[in-house]
Amino acid sequence: MSFKPGEQVACINDCFDAVVEKLYVALPKEGSIYTIREVFPGRIEFAGGNPADAVDAVLLKELQNPKDPRHIYGRELGFAAWRFRRLQELTDVQRERYGIGQEAEEEEGAEVFVGSYDKE
Q1: CB distance 39 to 1 below 8 Å
Q2: Is residue 16 part of a domain?
Q3: With a threshold of 0.85, does the pTM exceed it?
């Protein structure tokens, strides 16, 4: 799954290990919408040490985290791309669960009263 900077995505998995919670300042929340800031190759050791299992990592515009202490150039800590889905790729169940797209439906279905309550 390869995202592009500027794409809107929803977090579908916010279950993190305790070590991750200690390293990061800001973690994504399941059901929240974010904007992709950058995509880069993820750390191999988080993929079990096998380079063939390496996954894309993403940075999000809405979240800022400290630099990765193990990255030679001090890249910011990112998140595995599999934790996110493009909004248009969400299932109907996910859309309903996260409340995505319901705002537009509510606006369309809202009745507007035009007139007066006075019986003159």
Answers
A1: no
A2: yes
A3: no
